[in-house]
Amino acid sequence: MRTNILLLLAVLFAYVLTGCVKDDDSDCPDPEEANLIVRFEYFNLLDEDIFDDRIEMVDVIMFDQALNYYGWVTLDRTRLDQFRGVQLDVEPGEYYFVCWANNRSDRGETPGSGSLGGSYIYHYNPASADPLHYAPDKRIVLPDGTVTTGGDDAYKITVPPSTVKEDTMAFMSAHRTVNVYLKNFPGVDDPDYDLPTVSIDHLSEYYDFSLGRGPENAIFVQTTQEVTIEGTNYCFATFYIPHFDFDNNVNIVISGESAEGSYVRTVAMESVLQLYNIDRVYDGDDLVLDIEISWGNTLVTIEIPPFKITDVDPGFG
Q1: CA 175 to CA 285: how far, in whole Å?
Q2: Which of 38, 31, 79 is nearest to 55 (CA)?
Q3: Is the dihedral of CA 31, 11, 84, 20 positive or negative?
Q4: Which H or E run includes 133?
Q5: Are 111 and 119 in contact (CB under 8 A)?
Q6: Comparing C-alpha atoms, which of 316, 161, 282, 182 is closest to residue 236?
């Protein structure tokens, strides 16, 4: 959670970052004073506007020309319905903007100074992490297929003197969704034993404000729930996890107990990506992986769940 100092700073600078109500201009800065209007947008790969479907709240963080923290404001759903963006009354000059969307109270944020890479957003409670989104989406795909956000200049907006500057910030996904369906695992029908636990390891516990990832030593853990889909019983868990490199050692680990004793089964994320015939997906694509894991005495088998088979390709938002 934010420190008391950070909360105080957010209050002090709230007057700088103002949401404007379209039908009631009482919340709007005087048109002669509002010299920067920033609008938000969010499109999927089908060029469909998904902002209203995906975004519930937006944190807008502003840095000055020296990349020192300048201000912070949170826009809730009501405010975003009134105006999808912010109006700012600032001195002419260069400013840098970062937005996090759907950032819940179980995450922590630490705006630093001197570098966007020196500010962090932490996953304090990975088990209850929500889908996380990020702006600006100014990714550059390099010839080797890697992706860069274009350095600090990608976040810069220059406000000229005596002129109203209008700009747009596009959002991108800062998470990947993994839905795990466990089938025929032992002990599930025995009330003496808890349902299996699923974890995903080798994940980053934080992003910096340029969407760089921290050390990949976090483990996201979920206790499964029983569900019945098309007549088949599953133990189900869903994860919203940070981006990860497709060539690192990410694993899905299932653990539980039955009358025969405790067990642990591991599925390499690489095999899941191979199941979907994925070589590389750019960071920011809203990748959804549905995976059915069936019990075996020594090994488990994986496949795309039959109720998802018509959507063989992974879903993208």
Answers
A1: 8
A2: 79
A3: negative
A4: strand 133-135
A5: yes
A6: 182
**What contacts 53, CB < 8 A, 6 or more positions away?**
none
For the segment 129-161, what is each residue's pLDDT rounded down to a tens digit?
678 899 998 777 667 666 666 677 778 999 999
Is residue 256 within 8 Å of residue 197, measured between CB atoms?
Answer: yes
Buried b (16+ CB within 10 A) or exposed e, 201-219: bbbbbbbbbbbebbebebe
C-alpha angle 85-86-88 in degrees, rounded to nearest 5: 155
Write the pLDDT tens digit of every residue in 21-74: 333 444 454 545 678 999 999 998 788 999 999 999 999 998 988 888 888 888
In Å, the largest CA–CA distance within the chain is: 76
Cis? peptide before 92, omega within 30° of 0: no
